[in-house]
Amino acid sequence: MAALLIPRRNRGMRTRLGCLSHKSDSYNDFTAILPDKPSRALKRLSTEEATRWADSFDVLLSHKYGLAAFRAFLKTEFSEENLEFWLACEDFKKTRSAAKLASKAQRIFEEFIDVQAPREVNIDFQTRELTRRNVQEPSLSCFDQAQGKVHSLMEKDSYPRFLRSKIYTDLLSQTQRRLS
Question: By its UniProt entry, which Gene3D superfamilies does this protein fall under (predicted)?
Answer without folding.
Answer: 1.10.196.10, Regulator of G-protein Signalling 4, domain 2
